[in-house]
Amino acid sequence: MLTPSPPPSSTTGSTPTPLRAALYLLxxxxxxxxxxxxxxxxxxxxxxxxVLVIGVPLLLTLVLxxxxxxxxxxxxxxxxxxxxxxxxxxxxxxxxxxxxxxxRLQERCTWRELAYALLFAFVLxxxxxxxxxxxxLVCGGLIGTPVMMAVGGDGEARVLKLWLADSWPEAFAVLVxxxxxxxxxxxxxxxxxxxxxxxxxxxxxxxxxxxxxxxxELDRSRMRLVDAFEAERRRIERDLHDGAQQRLVALSMTLxxxxxxxxxxxxxxxxxxxxxxxxxxxxxxxxxxxxxxxHVLTDRGLVAAVEDxxxxxxxxxxxxxxxxxxxxxxxxxxxxxxxxxxLTNVAKHSGATRVTVTGEAAHGRLxxxxxxxxxxxxxxxxxxxxxxxxxxxTGLQGVADRLSVLGGxxxxxxxxxxxxxFRLEVPCPPADSRT
Length: 435
Description:
The protein has helices spanning 18-48, 55-64, 66-76, 97-106, 108-143, 145-152, 168-204, 208-260, 267-292, 295-300, 302-312, 329-350, 395-405, and strands spanning 157-159, 163-165, 317-322, 355-362, 365-372, 409-413, 420-427. By secondary structure, the chain is an alpha+beta fold. The strands form 2 sheets. It has a 5-stranded mixed β-sheet, with helices on one face. A two-stranded antiparallel ribbon has the order 1-2. Residues 1-13 and 380-393 have low confidence and may be disordered.
């Protein structure tokens, strides 16, 4: 089966294990402390040296300090959230430090990352240190009571500054209480870490509006590329039809008239062979023009073009294709060449005696199936992208790529013994205008 792979499922609603949560919060403490010191040093030194030239790079570094921190946070969040956090930065339009700086300073995500760095340095890590420190202090104080009693040497130990344990049974009872409380107190850390990860993802993820805009622009650019490709195919077809083909027609007619003059041998034999070669070249160039872009597809639409393929197939083909209106030219062309490739594979490798082409357009999607009664067993290797043909070519992979550009998909079912079903689905908005 050749289909675009689905996007990975999000697991952002899962809650991490207590160990991963504690590790995530513990690593925040030294990282936050380092961030706080770095921001204070850059701000202080940059402000003092602002009157000098060396102060400007320090302040610029302060503005950009959120970028490396955000990159580290996108990696660190994987401790508790397996879903990757996308990098919102775009590639600079040109190489060099100046282009990189100009691009980063113009991006909204750079300023969001600076805001995150300030929030992390002054608010988040102290709260995380308080949460983890409370658990460690309470449980550590309880579990360490026998040790403190042994180190004190006076047979007593103060437990969490609250009461005095003055016997060994009491000290070990406090130790057991600390061991029991440890998993109970670390359990809430899971939710603290989960909330921290949600906040990090909200601040460091690309804004959805920006993502939607970029996706829409990618869709538009993709369709522009498809239209440009089809326009170039049409230009080549037109140049061959109006140029080389007409010259070959004129040459063939001239050679035919020369043969009517009945020249003497060996000139007559040479003229006859030249006329045959010109006629064969004319047939080949007509087939080439038809393969680039058939006129019947342009003039009469997809159904007529598929029926023309069926008439030229060496295997009988039944066509039951229902397309009520003309579709976008790119859609018609992609479906036409997909059906053409399927019929070619059937004729070459299936051993079938009959083929059926069915399809209909419904709910904004065109579905077409090519089914044969051959021996089956055709397999397309998704890893290698190979089509099921003897030559090991990539015909079906090319068809799948062409359909995926339009948002469609290609599926191949071919169990041993048959039947083989070549099925494609593609969005089919009606064509408002056609070139």
